[in-house]
Request: fold
Amino acid sequence: MTNNDKNTNAEKEPPASTPKSAKKKRKLYTVTFFHNWCKSCGLCSAFCIKKIILKDETGRPYIEDMDSCTGCRFCEIHCPDFAITIKNRHPVRRSTDDNG
Amino acid sequence: MLERAEIIRKEYLRHDKKFPHVWCPGCGNGIVMGALLRGIHGLNLSKDEVVLASGIGCSGRMPTYIDFNTIHTTHGRALTFCTGIKLAKPELTVITVMGDGDATAIGGNHFIHAARRNIDLTAIIINNSTYGMTGGQYSPTTPFGSKSTTSVYGHVEHAFSIAELAVTAGASFVARGTVYHAVHLEEMIQQAIRTRGFSVVEVISNCHVQHGRRNKLGGAVEMITSYKENAVLVGKAAKMSPEELEGKFTIGVLANVKKPISTEQYQRVIVEARKNSHKNSSEKEKNGIKRYEE
Reply:
């Protein structure tokens, strides 16, 4: 057991020490809600592992922090109304914010 | 390039059929429909090769929305219609979508005899433990003691398991899935379609409006979460003790056997009977004439 614990600790360390490379390689996704078909059942917001799908006062889902989406597609697969689409998103280049 | 979800929405759904569909918000039928479409899309079957049939009930609305060769039949008789389709056109992939009441109460005889004959069909049975469309009456799969409109003081009868019934009746492939495990369900449906012979996929689904509300099981989210907690894979369940398995159900492939298929055997009979009829036609005619004369 002790050997296994050591191994798992050793494996966990490298990603923590190199966060920059991990962030650069991370893929971005866009989640689109097709509100005409949505019935506000709340499955997507309840089962989202990052808890980024929020509900407005009428129960309709929306996302503020789109960059946190991991692209697991749980919401897309479990949407009973075919109202969610997830697409790969390429990061915006030449943004003015970076240069000042 | 279109994403898979977009392809499924644009290619496989009938957009003139008044979307959003009629099912309640959070109903598992929509998830099963998605898994079925993704499974068929993954198998690269063309839309003209697939026949989708259904009986009456909430699940009976499914073929209305999907752009295959579809038929919406009478209550419990979806399998009999499918038997006819398969005998007439054996090259088609025939899939039936039924509810638990449709498959095991009204169509119970058809179901066990389709399994016994081993017709080359795929039956997807959505088990939500109640008759949802007609107002929440108890069905053959309603658990003992649970409440419904026809069992207000708790159900006095015992439920039976659809998947185990199909195994005993002699189906080639039997699997169980839940709406929470949608990717697993998609694989089970793909395996069922690929299997030659009668294949059954029982899907444990939620009816939070009729069944969940009366038994205080919560809404769609709570019911679907309970499937995550109570479902045990078949391989893991074999190692667990009966006490640990109490209140839980197994998911995965429950039976996978190779057997002669009745529809294929029937085609063989047709060929042999035609050969014999050509050989003996002259003798038979003579015999027939003799009998008439006698």
In short: Chain B touches chain A at residues 3, 5-6, 8-9, 13, 19-21, 23-31, 33-35, 38, 179-180, 182-183, 219-221, 224-225 (CB under 8 Å). Residues 262-279 of chain B form the longest helix (18 residues). Chain B has two domains: 4-257, 260-294.
